[in-house]
Amino acid sequence: MSQIHTRQMGRLVAAGTLDQMDSTIETLARLRALHVVDYDGSDDDLGMGAPNDSAEQLSRDVNKLRSAAALVTSKSNEAASASEIREALSGDLHDQVDSLLSENDRLAEIKGILESLAAESAELQMVAPLKTDLDLLGGYESLTSFVGTVRDAATARDAAKGGLLVTGKAGKKTVVAIFVRNEDAKTTQSSLEEAGFAALSIPDCDGSVSSRMNEINAERADLLQEQESLEMSVASWSESNADVLLSGLELLERDQELATAPVRAAVTSHAFVVEGWVEMARATEISESLEGKCTVVDIEPFKIQPGGGSHGHSDHGHHQEMPPIAFQERTASRPMELLTDAVGRPAYGRIDPTLFMFYTYPIFFGMMLGDMAYGLVTMWLGLLLLRKAGTNEMVNLGGKFLLYIGLGTLVFGYIYGEIAGFEIFGHHETWANSLSFLYPGVDDHGHGWHAAFPFGLELAFPFHRVAAVEDGGNLEHLILLTIYLGVAHVFVGLVLGFRDIWLHGNGHGDEGFVCALFEKGSWMILLFGGFLAAYSFLSKPAYEERWVDPDPAYLDLLSTMMTVGLVMVVIAVVMIMWMLYRYHGVPFPINIGLGPIEAVGMMPTVISYVRLFAVGVVGVKIAETGNTMIFENISMDQPVMAVILIIGWLAVQIFAWGLGVFSPNIHAARLHFVEWMRQFYDASGEAFKPFGFKARRVEVE
Question: Domain spans of the chain?
Answer without folding.
Answer: 1-48+273-324+688-696, 117-219, 334-679
